[in-house]
Hints:
By secondary structure, this protein is α+β, with helices and mostly antiparallel strands. Helix content is about 20%, strand content about 30%.
Amino acid sequence: MAQLSLSRRLRRTPFSDGVEAAGVKAYTVYNHMLLPTVFHSLEEDYHHLKSAVQIWDVASERQVELRGPDAGRLMQLLTPRDLRSMLPGQCYYVPVVDETGGMLNDPVAVKLAEDRWWISIADSDLLYWIKGLAYGYRLDVLVDEPDVSPLAVQGPKAEDLMAEVFGDRIRNIRFFRYDHLQFEGRDLVVARSGYSKQGGFEIYLEGGDLGIPLWNALFEAGKELDVRAGCPNLIERIEGGLLSYGNDMTDDNTPHECGLGKFCNTQMAIGCIGRDALLRVAKEGPVKQIRPLSIDGPAVPPCDRYWSLLAKDKIVGRISSAAWSPDFNMNVAIGMVRMTHWDPGTELVVDSPDGPRRAIVLEEFWS
Ligand code: THG
C-alpha cells in the first residue's frame, strides 16, 4: 500500500506527539487534519475500547465558533432542529442542511452562552458556508475556527479516569451536558459525549500549548485502569449505528434519509435555510433510508467505495460502511436501502469486492 505524504497542509494536532509516541499505525484525514484510525489493530482496539478506557485525539473535530448578538439566529439558520429551548450547558446533535434540505454536516452544537456557540463539525468545510450566510444575511456575528481541540476519553472506565484528573464533579455531568473544569489553571469545557456507545467524555482544550500536559496527565492517572491511546473505532461505531458524514451520507441526502428525523423539528425550526425544502419532502416521506445490515461470509475488506445492493439483479441500495464484528460474529454494515426493500429481514445480494454475498436488513445489530 502507498503512503500518505505528510505536509503542512495536512495539519497536525496539539496531541500528535503523544499519538506518535503511543505507536499510531494508521491515520485518516478529517477536516484537513490527522485523525488516528488504528493503534494495535482494528479488532484489538475494539476489544480494549469495550472493556477499559482510551484517550482519543479527535482534534480534527474542529470547532466553528459563532460569537455575537446574532449567534443564536445564525445557529438556527443552519439546522432543522428547534434550538429555542436549548440552554448554555447543553450539547445537541444537529443535522445541518442546505437550501435543498441536503446534509452539509452532522455536528455537535455546544451552547456556551446566548451569544456564543461552538459547532463541533464532522468532515466538511462548514466554516465557509457559515461565513457566507453571516455575510449574506448581514448578521452581527463573528465566525471563525478557534484554537480548540477536543480530546475524548471513551470506554466503560472513562468516568473513573476522568475523576482521577478532574475530581468527582465530573460524575454529575449528564449525557450531552457539559461543565467547566480547571486544568493547570485553564478553564476547560468537559462534556459527557463522544463518538462511541461505550460512554465517556470530551474535553474541549482551548489552547494547543496544553495538549501534551493534558495527554500526559490522563495517561499518568489511568495506569491502573489500563488506559491506552485509541481512536474512533470502525467496528464499534457501525455496531452502534453512528453515522460518518462523507461515508454514510452526503449533501445528496436529507436528514430523514439518514434516519436523523428524530433530531429535526422542521415545523418549529423557523429560520432554517432548508425548512421549506424539508417540509416539502417530509410530506411524502423518504423513499430510501439508512439501515443496519449484516453481510454473510468471512471478514469483508474495507469499504472504500459503495457496494451495490441487489434484489433480483436490480439495484435497490448500497453499502457505505462495513466491518467484521467479533462480538456479533458477523460482518456489520451501514447502507442506504430503497423503501421497497428496507424492512427488517429482507434478504439482498451485496456486490462486494470479492464477489456477491448475502446481506440482510436488520432492525438493530444488538437485537
Ligand atoms: N463529538 C464531537 N464532535 C463531533 C463528533 C463527536 N464532530 C464530528 C462527528 N462526531 C459528528 N457526528 C456525530 C455523530 C453521532 C454523535 C455525535 C456526533 C452521537 N450520537 C449519539 C447517538 O446517535 O446515539 C447521541 C445523539 C443524541 O442523543 O443527542 O453522539 O462525536 N464533539
